[in-house]
Amino acid sequence: MTKDELKDYVSSHFDGKLTPLDTGRYDPMFQVKSEDLMEVARALKADENLQFDYLCNLAGVDTKEHFEAVYSIASISNNLRLDFKVILPYDKAEIESVQEVWPGINWYEREIWELYGINVLNHGNLKRFLLPDDWDQGHPMRKDWDAPDFERMPEF
Amino acid sequence: MGIIRKVPHYAEKIPGGGIITTALETVLHQAQAKSLWYLLFGTACCAIELMCTGASRYDFDRLGMIYRATPRQSDLIIVAGTITKKMAPRLRRLYDQMAEPRYVIAMGGCTISGGPFYYDSYAVEKGIDHIIPVDIYIPGCPPRPESLLEGCIHLQEKIKKQKLSDWQEK
């Protein structure tokens, strides 16, 4: 299945819950509503023609307007790659844990919780991960983050 | 072998005897300067240059520098690489475990000021002199082995200029 075929297949199936975004020559990218996340994750893994059984990455993004959680998944058996993202508003930055589908996402979810402050529901082990154990200065990857010894790059 | 060559210079021969007299300070500090065992502490790319300096081309051994894997046997800690805020207490702990007299070389931009991670970083300590006292700073990103060798020679000069009372009281 080529990238274009994959894009068409995923857009036309799954009740239109995955909206395709324009990514040019890169892997197809879709947008998913946060309430559909679990359903979409289960369906992508269960679909016979896709079998997305491998989670590559979960990235957090702060666009200064909202947060994004970007999931990169792959299918080992069908040699496919696909990304989808969930947009989360600042005032309700929480997301469902998809460990049930891809157990390897555990640490990535801890990471975005720690660095962006995106709350992960039903995670089970949401505790300090990469930052020092006694860290008390909030979520450093947020765009509006600041600390006493933090220097922002000056404009040149 | 430097110390052997310098002994006749400082020592006074007693006619007919095999005894020489010399200043304890000179002998002790010469000995100390010529056998600085350093703790292996490499956290980033500076460690590659440190390894290269220790290997046969630059031959760190000729300055009496031998690597040790434990702070309890080390006289010197060459901090080679970025020190993050999470690493800082561990560095302090290693330094505290070293026996006196002990010396510190800050190798590379990261250990001097945070280097390329000075801006926009929440994780990097901006200079190890916030954590431990530093004797020699070696700039560079990373410094070449020649710079490291020169830094070590400067440290040896510094040690030789010490007074005996300095390190007794320390």
Question: Which terms would index this structure?
Answer:
heterodimer; A: 156 residues; alpha/beta; Beta Polymerase, domain 2; 3 helices; 7 strands; globular; B: 170 residues; Rossmann fold; 5-stranded parallel sheet; two-stranded antiparallel sheet; 7 helices; 38% helix
What would you say this structure looks like, in words?
The complex is a heterodimer of chains A (156) and B (170). Chain A has a domain at 3-91: NADH:ubiquinone oxidoreductase Nqo5 subunit (Beta Polymerase, domain 2), CATH 3.30.460.80. Chain A is 20% helix and 26% strand. Chain A contains three helices and seven strands, in the order H-E-E-H-E-E-E-E-H-E. The radius of gyration of chain A is 17 Å and the shape is globular. Chain B is an alpha/beta fold and 170 residues long. Chain B has a domain at 37-151: Rossmann fold (3-Layer(aba) Sandwich), CATH 3.40.50.12280. Chain B is built from seven helices and seven strands, in the order αββαβαββαβαβαα. In chain B, strand 1 and strand 2 form a beta hairpin. The radius of gyration of chain B is 18 Å and the shape is elongated. The two termini of chain B are 28 Å apart. The A-B interface holds A 131-132, 137, 140-141, 145, 147, 149-154 and B 85-86, 118-123, 126.
